[in-house]
Design a protein that fits this description.
The complex is a heterodimer of chains A (291) and B (267).
Chain A: H1 2-44, H2 61-64, H3 67-80, H4 87-118, H5 120-135, H6 141-149, H7 153-177, H8 181-190, H9 194-231, H10 237-246, H11 250-278
Helix pairs in contact in A: 3-11, 4-5, 4-7, 4-9, 6-7, 6-9, 7-9, 8-9, 9-10, 9-11, 10-11
Chain B: E1 5-15, E2 21-32, E3 37-41, H1 48-56, E4 63-68, E5 71-72, E6 80-83, H2 95-99, H3 101-105, H4 110-123, H5 139-151, E7 157-161, H6 169-186, E8 189-194, H7 197-203, E9 206-210, E10 217-222, H8 231-234, H9 238-266
Parallel strand pairs in B: 3-8, 3-9, 6-7, 7-8
Antiparallel strand pairs in B: 1-2, 1-4, 4-5, 9-10
The chains are: A mainly alpha (291), B alpha/beta (267).
């Protein structure tokens, strides 16, 4: 008996070791893959170059940049600041626009989604217009906002709001429509008023739909802010990209992209935490985005 | 004595969005006395659940009248409790919040609602599980939450729509006994819908057989078995077996009609 136990214990230990080995293997291969991509980028932009003409290289670093150049560019920005001022200021401006646009868009989307979801007449009347607005590529509104609201933050926030609003709106609307009829009936029998039905049943039920849209809509908010800055601004990462493009500085474009990627990943982590807070009650709440 | 529930000449039709009408109940008469436990049996789709929806006020009748405690039903009444077939506990509320939802909706103070909720949670045997969410509980435990949630409002009319059909046999027998105990303490009138004739006989004072849709009353049987009952024993009493044979004769024809229909609609 004891021997059997010991054998079973050994198997568990062996399994745990195998798991650890696999984890290390995955990590090692990941690093290798990253090094391979960055390394071959660096090498191909250096190989075969004759003289000062970069067009002779296997890949022309003038157009496609070069990892070492990108790092160098980042170093310059961090030490000397960008053409529009210190780097942190650009990041702060873009973040402010994104977060404001995201927050306003989410709140408006939820409010309108719940109102129209609960009121059939209103949704029937407004339906075609909302669909038409949604079908339109709303990014072109950016030009209008720049003209109307100027080169400062409000025009970028407006563009982000417009992008975020529809994503959240449709999810909130659908979430309200998909509420379990038995739960509604149960709440009514238990004595819930119309208002209590909204706060105790409809909103919490729609929340899982709304929260599911937050990941996508934060991405949209960032797109709105960047495109807005690109179209016309005095500060921000979008403007840095526009400036780099204007001076044929490929490394600058890539460096700004890298900053954006870091910002987006951090924001994604925050949204995931928010999500888990909001829907703690759900079985296997999403803790990480899996491929 | 005035009946607790009275349905007179009730017909209920549903009109689908496509415009076709479906008659769920036709010319149904049913009365339930105060404190009576009435079971309704019938084949699938005979309008059993519709009957409960009418009594609760969730649905109005197309023709006829529904009276509860002497008053015509116009809206969802305060004196009615309803235990649904599927889990209708709120998945985003923990056990405590689920059970105190009723008093909360009825604007009791938070302290009083919570005190009563804790009492009911203990009464259905869930003390210690106050902070668990429904998805963390077993099917039987969720049913207990639903029972506590309904009974905390002290309904005079208790409607139950196949409440235990999703439970395994053992849990089910336990829950049936508990229901009888809880009910004995409240003195509410119960309408218990089930497709399980054995369950109906074991629990009820009276079994009503409804015909295959459109539903109407086919027969009524008084269950002359004393109380308190123990579900596990009642089933094997000679009187139960007799009643089963008697009622099954009525029910079998309706089940066959219903079965033939589903076969045809599938074919």
């Amino acid at each position: 008996m004891r021997q059997a136990d010991a054998a079973a214990g050994d198997r568990d230990v062996a399994r745990a070791r195998a798991r650890d080995r696999r984890r290390l293997l995955v990590l090692g291969l990941r690093i290798a893959l990253g090094a391979f991509i960055v390394g071959s980028w660096e090498l191909t932009t250096r190989a075969g170059c004759h003289g000062p003409d970069t067009a002779t290289c296997v890949i022309d670093p003038f157009f496609f940049g070069r990892p070492s150049g990108i790092v160098e560019q980042l170093g310059i920005w961090i030490q000397n600041g960008t053409a529009q001022g210190p780097l942190w200021e650009q990041i702060a401006v873009t973040l402010e626009e994104t977060v404001l646009g995201f927050a306003i868009g989410v709140v408006l989307g939820v409010i309108f989604g719940v109102i129209l979801g609960r009121n059939r007449l209103l949704s029937d009347v407004a339906g075609p217009y909302i669909k038409a607005l949604n079908a339109m590529p709303r990014i072109v509104l950016g030009s209008i906002f720049i003209m109307a609201l100027g080169f400062e933050i409000p025009s970028k926030v407006a563009l982000a709001v417009v992008l975020v609003f529809f994503v959240v709106f449709f999810n909130a609307f659908q979430g309200v429509r998909e509420v379990d009829r038995d739960l509604l009936a149960n709440a009514r029998i238990l004595g819930a008023s119309q208002r209590q039905l909204s706060t105790h049943v409809i909103l919490p039920s729609a929340l899982s739909w709304i929260v599911a849209s937050l990941h996508t809509s934060f991405g949209f908010a960032l797109v709105g802010a960047i495109v807005g800055e690109y179209l016309g601004a005095r500060k921000g990462i979008g403007l840095m990209i526009a400036t780099a493009q204007g001076t044929f500085n490929a490394n600058g474009v890539f460096a700004a992209m890298l900053i954006l990627a870091v910002v987006a990943i951090l924001a994604e982590a925050l949204v995931t935490r928010l999500e888990n807070r909001l829907i703690r009650w759900r079985p296997n709440a999403i803790t990480d985005v899996n491929i | 004595m005035e009946p607790a529930i009275e349905l007179r000449g009730v017909t209920k039709r549903f009109v689908s969005p496509a415009g076709t009408a479906f008659t769920a109940l036709r010319d149904l008469d049913l009365t339930v006395a105060p404190g009576e436990f009435c079971a309704i049996v019938g084949p699938t789709g005979c309008g059993k659940s519709t009957t409960l929806a009418l009594i609760s006020g969730l649905e109005p009748p197309s023709i006829g009248e529904v009276r509860v405690l002497g008053r015509p039903v116009t809206d969802v009444g305060r004196s009615v409790g309803y235990v649904f077939q599927r889990d209708a506990v709120f998945p985003w509320k923990d056990v405590l919040e689920n059970v105190l939802a009723g008093p909360q909706f009825r604007r009791l103070s938070r302290a009083e609602a919570e005190a009563r909720a804790r009492e009911w949670i203990a009464r259905v045997g869930l003390a210690g599980f106050e902070r668990y969410y429904p998805h963390q509980l077993s099917g039987g435990m969720r049913k207990r939450v639903a029972l506590a949630q309904t009974l905390i409002n002290e309904p005079q009319i208790l409607l139950m729509d196949e409440p235990f059909s999703a439970l395994d046999v053992q849990t089910r027998a336990l829950m049936e006994n508990e229901l009888l105990d809880l009910w004995a303490a409240t003195g509410a009138s119960v309408v218990f819908v089930t497709h399980d004739l054995e369950e109906a006989i074991a629990l009820a004072d009276r079994v009503v057989v409804i015909t295959a849709g459109p539903g109407t009353i086919k027969g009524e049987y008084r269950v002359d078995i004393g109380r308190p009952r123990n579900i596990a024993e009642v089933r094997f009493q000679p009187r139960s077996v007799e009643l089963y044979a008697e009622i099954w004769k009525d029910l079998r024809d309706e089940v066959l009609v219903s079965y033939e229909r589903t076969k045809r609609s599938v074919a």
